[in-house]
Design brief:
Elements: E1 5-9, H1 21-32, E2 44-49, E3 70-71, E4 80-83, H2 88-92, H3 99-110, E5 114-117, H4 121-127, E6 135-136, H5 143-149, E7 154-155, E8 161-163, E9 167-170, H6 174-188, H7 190-199, H8 227-234, H9 243-250, H10 254-265, H11 269-287, H12 292-298, H13 304-315, H14 319-325, H15 329-347
Parallel strand pairs: 1-2, 1-4, 2-3, 4-5, 5-9, 6-7
Antiparallel strand pairs: 8-9
Length: about 350
């Protein structure tokens, strides 16, 4: 098994925004720090830009600047190319991506490099045509723009990362770390990846198919006057609401209500109710220490088994796993107390029977 060279693309060498440093730091941390006791040789990390960084130093240069001996021309020689992000203007304002970057990505892919994007880096891959006919993801806040701008890409906004073999894409922020650890697992094996994750104090493995933890509040086009009805329903999610109940509240027939809601939200009344109940369950799991059975009742999902079924189907994790990922409120305090007791217990000498 070989690690190889990893070329990380820095698209904004002059005034790198501080909010982009997280994604940039992920591949630098995973691939850039040698771990000779885990694998030797480790990866060789290159930071690649367009060569403008040397001219950026001085009091007039905002943010952070890059100085590196590597440029976009070096991507073609790398084993793996990582694009952590692209300039905000390219995503939010539709500004064109740098043509030199797009061409360099095409050349690198054509030379056989494994192509990896984190967060908004997928926009660069899509512009280069590397995602045509493929599944891909990005941060959930930008997947709508990605799908609209590049209809040839099969955008999946519900997963942490997508592995298409030679092209891999991840959602935003911590999902990028999941993907980078996935690459280590592919290259150097599960033991190395697990030990590296332990050193980084992060979960050893979150499968790519796990859902992004996002708040999917339904956007409502209120031309049909549905907002008051939906707010009324949200306040009564624990009740056994039906489509007929919602239609009666809207003073229309169930068929008319179905049509209006689907037109305004893109979903059916049953799907809308389920999404709101799952959202309520997530909020309760995040902010309270209520037992799962009570969370199921208060969210309108009825039983713990039904809650677990829908969580696994729609979010890819169990309610307990979701709660561990979002500790908060009294639950966080309870966890802290339990861990404190556990740590004291762990420090006490124990006799372990031999088997």
């Amino acid at each position: 098994m070989s690690a190889g060279t990893v070329a990380v693309v820095v698209t904004e060498e002059i005034g790198v925004p501080s909010w982009d440093l997280y994604e940039l730091s992920i591949p630098c941390t995973v691939f850039g720090k040698p771990q000779p006791d885990l694998a030797d040789p480790w990866y060789e990390l290159w930071l690649c830009g367009n060569g403008e960084g040397d001219r950026a130093w001085g009091p007039a240069a905002p943010g952070f600047s890059l100085r590196s001996p590597y440029t976009l021309d070096d991507l073609v020689r790398a084993d793996t190319v990582v694009v952590p992000s692209v300039p905000d203007a390219c995503v939010e304002e539709g500004a064109p991506l740098p043509s030199a970057l797009v061409e360099a990505l095409r050349r690198a892919h054509g030379a056989g490099a494994r192509m990896v994007s984190l967060c908004t880096g997928a926009f660069a891959f899509a512009e280069a045509g590397l995602l045509d006919g493929r599944r891909a993801t990005a941060h959930w806040m930008h997947t709508g723009d990605l799908a609209a701008r590049y209809p040839a890409v099969e955008v999946d906004d519900s997963v942490l990362y997508v592995d298409e073999g030679d092209v891999l894409t991840s959602a935003g922020l911590t999902a990028g770390l999941d993907l980078c650890l996935h690459l280590v697992r592919r290259d150097l094996g599960a033991h190395v990846a697990n030990q590296l994750a332990r050193r980084m104090v992060v979960p050893a493995h979150r499968p790519g198919g796990q859902a992004q933890f996002i708040d999917q509040s339904v956007p409502v086009n209120d031309d049909e006057g549905l907002a008051p009805v939906l707010e009324w329903a949200r306040a009564r999610l624990e009740e056994p609401l039906t489509v007929r109940d919602l239609a009666r509240r809207a003073a229309v027939s169930p068929r008319t209500f179905y049509r209006r809601l689907q037109s305004a939200t893109g979903t059916t009344p049953v799907q809308w109710l389920l999404s709101q109940r799952l959202q309520r369950a997530r909020e309760l799991l995040e902010s309270t220490d209520l037992p799962v059975e009570q969370v199921a009742v208060r969210s309108g999902l009825g039983t713990a088994n039904n809650l677990r079924h829908h969580f696994v189907n729609h979010l890819g994790v169990s309610p307990a796993a979701y709660r561990r990922a979002f500790p908060g409120g009294s639950y966080a305090g309870a966890v802290g107390r339990e861990e404190s007791v556990a740590s004291r217990t762990a420090r006490a000498p124990r006799t372990v029977p031999m088997t």
